[in-house]
């Protein structure tokens, strides 16, 4: 796996030094929950909010609803979600329901006889949407976050009968990421409660900040990619200019063979490598001479090679077209039918 990757600066987000990487990597699921509960849903302080499904997205949706002022806040799950339901309590849920032991509708009716103001379906299945439409109060909201490939019939009559607004929520955008990073760094989302397991990467390394101890990688206590950035090989171990040029020539040869292999023509790149060595001075330690004559010679050589390649590809295209035309005429002559127009 690559240690570095090049991306446009406009796509990057600044991670504060106080935010560890193991929490910063949770920005994406936080952004999904933020877009669902703070963007697409309309939650006012004191609204009764129900979250179906205590998975990672469901728990984060519950936390975003709590930050928006939801009260009461109900999270529903199955018997196997006992640990997650406990986490939901720590994230701000006032009620947790095991729907296999207790009817969810009874709990909601006890809290509000007309139903929930907002119901969030984060279960990742299609069937709970039926329950969400039944739990919503008249003129309420249903936000569908989780999705699944299951296609089942759903009763939409409650949607019309109660004038319920059904809102889908997908993904996020750059401003949401910026806000979520600030919330995580401030500790408002309690992101550490979402992390259930921490494991080392293959090779016994875990992501970390760049090492600043100045020690070697075997003596350094930080076991992460930051070590390889800090303990970079010295300049004496880097490749010589001649070795770099040789690697570049081999890479160009492979590229030209791949580009011209489809038409059956090969370009002799050995002549190109010899031209480059004669221009750049392969026997010297320096790079290309900075004289005007050397630059002009390099430009002429590059243009001539490009023109030769274009001519070769054009000849191959003409040959392929002639072969195809002859094959079509032979087939039409043999099997009958109108001749192919020339």
Summarize the topology:
Blueprint lengths: L20 H4 L2 H14 L8 E4 L3 H12 L5 E5 L4 H9 L4 E4 L5 H8 L4 E6 L6 H8 E9 L12 H5 L3 E4 L5 H12 L39 H6 L10 H20 L8 H12 L11 H44 L7
Parallel strand pairs: 1-2, 1-4, 2-3, 4-5, 5-6
Helix pairs in contact: 2-3, 2-8, 10-11, 11-12
Structural description of this entry:
By secondary structure, the protein is of the alpha/beta class. It folds into two domains: 10-193, 3-Layer(aba) Sandwich (Rossmann fold), CATH 3.40.50; 241-335, no CATH class. Helices cover 45% and strands 9% of the residues. It has a six-stranded parallel β-sheet with strand order 3-2-1-4-5-6, with helices on both faces. Helix 2 packs across helix 3 and helix 2 (27-40) crosses helix 8.
Brief summary:
The protein is α/β, with parallel strands linked by helices. Helices cover 45% and strands 9% of the residues. The protein contains twelve helices and six strands.
Can you tag this structure with a few keywords?
342 residues, Rossmann fold, alpha/beta
């Amino acid at each position: 796996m690559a240690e570095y990757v090049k991306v446009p600066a406009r796509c990057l987000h600044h991670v504060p030094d106080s935010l560890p990487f193991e929490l910063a990597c949770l920005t994406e699921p936080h952004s999904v929950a933020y877009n669902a509960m703070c963007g697409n849903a309309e939650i006012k302080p004191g609204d009764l909010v129900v979250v179906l499904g205590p998975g990672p997205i469901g728990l984060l949706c519950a936390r975003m609803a709590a930050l928006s002022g939801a009260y009461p806040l109900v999270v529903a799950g199955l018997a196997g979600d006992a640990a997650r339901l406990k986490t939901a309590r720590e994230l701000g849920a006032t009620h947790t329901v095991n729907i296999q032991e207790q009817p969810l509708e009874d709990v909601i009716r006890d809290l509000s006889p007309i139903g929930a103001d907002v119901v969030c379906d984060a279960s990742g299945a299609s069937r709970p949407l039926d329950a969400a439409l039944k739990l919503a109060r008249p003129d309420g909201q249903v936000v569908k976050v989780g999705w699944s490939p299951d296609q089942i019939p759903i009763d939409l009559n409650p949607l019309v009968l109660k004038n319920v607004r059904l809102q889908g929520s997908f993904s996020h955008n750059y401003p949401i990421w910026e806000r979520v990073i600030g919330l995580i760094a401030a500790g408002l989302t309690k992101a550490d409660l979402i992390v259930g397991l921490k494991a080392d990467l293959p090779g016994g390394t875990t992501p970390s900040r760049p090492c600043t101890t100045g020690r070697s990688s075997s003596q350094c206590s930080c076991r992460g990619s930051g070590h390889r950035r800090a303990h970079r090989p010295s300049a004496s171990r880097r490749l010589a200019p001649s070795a770099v040029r040789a690697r570049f020539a081999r890479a160009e040869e492979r590229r030209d063979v791949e580009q011209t292999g489809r038409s059956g023509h090969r370009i002799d790149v050995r002549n190109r490598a010899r031209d480059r060595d004669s221009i750049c001075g392969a026997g010297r330690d320096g790079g290309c001479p900075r004289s005007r004559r050397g630059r002009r010679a390099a430009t002429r050589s590059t243009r001539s090679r490009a023109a030769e390649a274009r001519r070769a590809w054009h000849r191959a295209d003409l040959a392929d077209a002639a072969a195809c035309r002859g094959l079509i005429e032979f087939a039409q002559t043999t099997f009958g039918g109108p001749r192919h127009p020339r």
